[in-house]
């Protein structure tokens, strides 16, 4: 038995030593942004920190807990001179971080008063392969939308810098959420991308659909009354918010018809049930002919 136990234990101890070493490296919080509905954005800098789109890190705040590490998806792009995470205040640890950063106070918080932060990572995810395809489908469910903040930012930076050498030509983005107000910071990002792409006369580069799954009768009535307005009353985007859940079979068939003979990357960050649905649709809508359309499914679950 000891032969089977010793190997994994050595690997575990090595991993703990690496995490301890990384936790001692200095991390500077450069900016704390308070977003609606108790969501805070921490912008940080760390010497030698390199990231790719959609990656995540483990964060420890000794002022809150000396032992707890929590995973957070990076919402910044590799092209930015900082890395950032968005933290929704939903428990004791996040509440402690919220208070430690002085977000519960009205006055301006001095930088030297901000708590020390330890960071381990970044760690890779399936989202890193986005730039390997000409056409991609990005599907985020609830909090699973956060990896695509990094992806969309990075795509835009690459597009502005050198659009001709960017392999990615078309993005279909789907955001499924029960309550869009909980992620207003992401709607702000979409608004910014929407405006900038229209300025460059390339509004077709990003197609997005926002599905509000937790709607009630009063929301539906509000939607009907304001449907003809230029911008959506919930998100402020030109694309209207849709109610209910998408018909994935129709979505896949439509995209397959618009991109014949293509390899289309399907990226999901969401629950296992949705992963099964998208995987089945990816298989059923891929052609047997190697020259036909093929959907390549990639997922990360939470």
Describe the structure.
With 302 residues, the chain is an alpha/beta fold. The model has no long low-confidence stretch (mean pLDDT 80). The chain folds into two domains: 100 residues, Elongation Factor Tu (Ef-tu), domain 3 (Beta Barrel), CATH 2.40.30; 172 residues, Rossmann fold. The longest helix has 22 residues. 32% of the residues lie in helices and 25% in strands. The strands form three sheets. A six-stranded parallel sheet has the order 10-9-8-7-11-12, with helices on both faces. The chain has a three-stranded antiparallel sheet with strand order 1-2-5, with no helix packed on it.
Short description:
This protein is an alpha/beta fold and 302 residues long. The protein is built from seven helices and twelve strands.
Query: Helix content range of the residues, please?
Result: 25-40%
Categorize the overall geometry: globular
Order of helices and strands: HEEEEEHEEHEHEHEHEHE
Mean pLDDT: 80
Task: From the alpha carbons, calculate the radius of gyration and give it in angstroms.
Answer: 21 Å
**What is the number of independent domains?**
2
Please summarize the sheet with the most strands.
6 strands, parallel
Stated plainly, the CATH topology of the largest domain is called: Rossmann fold
Number of beta-strand segments? 12
Number of helical runs?
7
Determine the strand fraction and express it as a percent band: 25-35%
CATH class of the largest domain: Alpha Beta
Cross-sheet strand order for the largest sheet: 10-9-8-7-11-12
Kindly report the name of the CATH homologous superfamily of the largest domain. Nucleotide-binding domain of ferredoxin-NADP reductase (FNR) module
Q: Are there runs of 5+ residues with pLDDT below 50, and where?
A: none
Structural class by SSE content: alpha/beta
Architecture of the largest domain, according to CATH? Answer: 3-Layer(aba) Sandwich
What is the CA–CA distance across the termini? 33 Å
GO biological process, one term: defense response
Subcellular location: Cell membrane
Organism: Oceanites oceanicus
Domain FAD-binding FR-type: 19-129
């Amino acid at each position: 038995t000891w032969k089977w136990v010793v190997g994994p234990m050595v690997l575990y101890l090595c991993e703990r030593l690496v995490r301890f070493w990384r936790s001692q490296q200095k991390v500077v919080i450069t900016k704390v942004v308070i977003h609606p509905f108790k969501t805070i954005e921490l912008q940080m800098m760390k010497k030698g920190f390199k990231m790719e789109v959609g990656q995540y890190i483990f964060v420890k705040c000794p002022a809150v807990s000396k032992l707890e590490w929590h995973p957070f998806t990076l919402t910044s792009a590799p092209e930015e001179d900082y890395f950032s995470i968005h933290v929704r205040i939903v428990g004791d640890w996040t509440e402690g971080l919220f208070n430690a950063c002085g977000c519960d106070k009205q006055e301006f918080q001095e930088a030297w008063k901000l708590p020390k932060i330890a960071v381990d990572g970044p760690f890779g995810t399936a989202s890193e392969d986005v730039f390997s395809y000409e056409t991609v489908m990005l599907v985020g469910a609830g909090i699973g939308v956060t990896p695509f903040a990094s992806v969309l930012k990075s795509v835009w930076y690459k597009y502005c810098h050198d659009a001709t050498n960017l392999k990615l030509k078309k993005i279909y983005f789907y955001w499924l959420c029960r309550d869009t107000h909980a992620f207003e910071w992401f709607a702000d990002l979409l608004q910014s991308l929407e405006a900038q792409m229209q300025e460059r006369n390339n509004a077709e580069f990003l197609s997005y659909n926002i599905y509000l799954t937790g709607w009630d009768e009063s929301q539906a009535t509000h939607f009907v009354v304001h449907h003809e307005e230029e911008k959506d009353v919930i998100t402020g985007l030109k694309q209207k918010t849709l109610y209910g859940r998408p018909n994935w079979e129709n979505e896949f068939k439509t995209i397959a018809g618009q991109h014949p003979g293509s390899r289309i990357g399907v990226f999901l960050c969401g629950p296992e049930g949705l992963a099964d649905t998208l995987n089945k649709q990816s298989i059923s809508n891929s052609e047997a002919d190697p020259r036909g359309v093929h959907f390549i499914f990639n997922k990360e679950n939470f």
